[in-house]
Structures
1.
Amino acid sequence: MTDGVNMGLEGLVVAETRLSHVDGQAGRLVIAGQDLADLVRGETFLGVAARLMAAAGAAWPQDPDALAAAQTAVFGRIGPFLAAARGLSPVAALRLGLAMQETDDPVPLLAAGPVLLAAHLRARQGLAPVAPDPSASLAAGFLAMLNPDQDAALRQSLARGLDVYWMTVSDHGLNASTFTARVIASTQAGTMAAVVGALGALEGPLHGGAPGPVLDMLDAIATPAAAGPWLRAALARGERLMGFGHRIYRVRDPRADVLKAALRDLPPSPRLALAEVVEAEARTALAAHRPDRPLETNVEYYTALVLEAVGLPRDAFTAAFGLGRMAGWLAHCAEQRRTGRLIRPQSRYIGPMPDGQAAA
Ligand code: ACO
C-alpha cells in the first residue's frame, strides 16, 4: 500500500467464486468443493475440468469423444501453426496457437493446447507432428504426441504424474492470470482472447515462469554442501529464490506436498535428494533474511521436478502449467460472464495538469 494506493491489490475481494478457495493461513486449497489431496486421489484432469465448468454453471460435454474430435480438428490445421511458430519459445508458440483457434468454445480451447505444444516441441527437433490418439487420456495423448515410441507402461505412469500435476494447478483463486482472464471476459470479449491474455500473465517468473529457473538454481548449486552458501549469497545480492514465497500463503503451499508425493510414482528423480537439502537450506536462509515475513516453499519448486521426471524440457514448463490452468481460466470466464459486471478499477493521476495545479 503506497499512500492510499493498493498497487498489488492485496486483500481486495473483487469476485465471488465457486471454483476454488485458498486459505493462506492454514495452507489449505479447496477446488470445486474438495480438498486438493482428496481431489487428486479420485479424479482425472478432465474430471476436474468438468467439475469446474459445472461449478461455474457452464455447459460441458458428457461425451468424452468431444475432446478427441476437437484435437483431431486442431491437428488438421497444424501446418500453418508450425510454420508461424518456428523459432518461438514453447509458451510463445502456445500463445500463438491458441490465438489461431477461431473459437470461443471451451472444449476446443482445452483440447488444443496439448496438440499445439507437442507438435511445436517436435518441430524444433526436426520431427514431424504426431496425430492425436482419440482413445488416450489428455495427458497420455499429449505424451504420445511428443514421443510415440515411448514404452506404453512407462507412458501410463508418466501420464498419471502429469494428470496429477494438471489437477493440482487447475485453479487457484484470483491469481494474476485468472484475474487477467476475468478482466478480459468482463469486457464481453471472447473466451479465446481471455485465455490468450491469461497465458501472457502466467509467463512471468513471479507467477508461472519460476519452475525452469528452479532447475537452473539446482544446477548452479550442484552439491548439498554448496546449498547454504549459494543461497545466502543470492539473497545478499538481493535476488529472489525461485520456488519460495507466495502472495497468499503464509505457510507451506499445500500443492508442494501433493506434487512431492506424485514424484514417488514417477521414475526416480536424480535431483530429489539435492532438492530436499536445498529446500531446507532455503527455508532457513529465508527465515534469517526476512524474519518478519514467512517465505515458504511454493508450488513451483516441486513442479520443476515433476515436469522434468515426466520428460518435458525446462523451457516448456510454463506452457505445461498453462495447459492445466486452462481448466480454471475457462471456468472463471464463464463465472465472470454470469455477473455481467465490467471490471474497471481506478488510478490516481500524478502527472502534470495543463494549469499547473495538482489533479483533484
Ligand atoms: N526470495 C527472496 N525474497 C523474497 C522471496 C523469495 N522467493 N519472495 C518474497 N521475497 C521478499 C521480497 O523481496 C519482499 O521484500 P521487500 O519487502 O524487502 O521488497 C518481501 O519478501 C515480500 O515479498 P512481496 O514481493 O511483497 O511478495 P509478493 O506477495 O508480492 O510475491 C511472489 C509473491 C511473487 C511469489 C514472491 O514470493 C516471489 O517473487 N517468489 C519467487 C518467484 C516464484 O517462486 N514464483 C512462483 C510463484 S507461485 C505461482 O505463481 C504459481
Note: The beta strands are 20-23, 28-31, 34-35.
2.
Amino acid sequence: MIILGIETSCDETAAAVVRDDRQILSNIIHSQIKEHQPYGGVVPEIAARSHLDYLSPVIQHALRDAHVTINDLSAIAVTSGPGLIGGVMVGVMAAKAMAAALNKPIIAVNHLEGHALVARLTHDVPFPFLLILMSGGHCQLILAKDLGNYEVLGQTIDDAAGEAFDKVAQCLDLDYPGGPQVERLARQGNEKRFPLPRPLKGRAGCDFSFAGLKTAVRNIVESERKNLSPEEDQIFKADLCASFQAAIRECLIDRLKNCFAHLPPNINHVVLSGGVAANQYLRSALEDLCHAHEKSFIAPPINLCTDNAVMIAWAGIERLKRNLISDLDFAPRPRWPLDQL
Ligand code: KG4
Ligand code: ZN
C-alpha cells in the first residue's frame, strides 16, 4: 500500500509518499513563511494563492523523490479540514482531480487526526492513548480510543498555546512564527525575572487558558520596555521569553496532573504532537511528568510535529486499511473537531 498525502490547511504546501510498512518514501514541504512574515501572521488569501502556485510542483517533487509514479499509488489522502478554507480547497480539489482521473480511492483526512496518528508511524503506540495536541490553533487533551474515535478531555477556553507563543513573539518584534524564536531567546533568559500569572492553576478540570498570560506579557512590554540600550533590550526579551515559557510549562503540568488523576487505568502511553511539540523545553518537562506517573512518553521527531504531509498520508493508510475511503463529493471544512469524525 503506497499513499500520497497532501497538506494545504495553513502556510505549508506539503506532499509526501508513505508506505504501509511505515517507510516514508518522500516528505516535501514548501513553507510560505517568507510570504507571510511582513504581516506578522498568516494571511489566508496569500496562503490560498501560494498553495495554488506550488502544490503541483510539490506533488511532482514528492513522487520523484519516492521513485514512484501516480499509477503506483494505492490512494490519495488529503487534509480536508480544519484549516484556512481557501488553502484546504486547493488541496482537496487537486486530490479529487487526481483521484477521479486515476480512478483511485480518495481519503478525506482531518488534520488533527494526522497530528494524532503520526506517532503510530514513528513508534509502536497502541490505542487507547492520551494525546496532548498543541498547535497554532488547538490546545487539547484527547483520549484517542481508536481510529476516528476521540474524546476531548480538556481544551483551551481562549487562545491556543501556539497562538500565545506567536502573539508574545509579535509584541517583542520577533519574526513569525513566534514559537521557535521565543524558545531560542528563552534559552539565554532568567525565567524568574517576571512573575507572570499561571491561568487556571490549582483549579479543577483539565482545560487551559492562555489569554491572560499573553495580556500580562503585553502589559510588561508596554510598561517596562522603554529607554533600554540594545544590550538591555536583548536581556529584557530573553528574560520575558523565559518567564513566559516557564508559565506555559507550569500550566501544562498542572492541567496534565489533573488529567492523569482521572484517566482510565489502561492508558499507559502519552503522545505529544502539533507544532508546539517542537519545543524542547516543554517536551522534556512533559516527558519527566509522564515518567513520574509511570507512563511512556512519545513525541514524533520535530519535523513530523509541525505541519507536514507524512502525517496525512499515514492517517490515510490507517483509514484505507479499514476500508474507510471517502466519496468524491465530500466538502472541505474550515471547522472539524476531532470528536466529530
Ligand atoms: O501544528 P502547526 O505546525 O500548525 C497548526 O496546525 O497550527 O503549529 C504551528 C504552531 C505555531 O503557533 C508555532 O509558533 C508553534 O506551532 N511552534 C512552536 C515551536 N515551533 C512551532 N511553539 C513553541 N516552540 C517551538 N519551538
Ligand atoms: Zn497542524
Note: The mean pLDDT is 97.
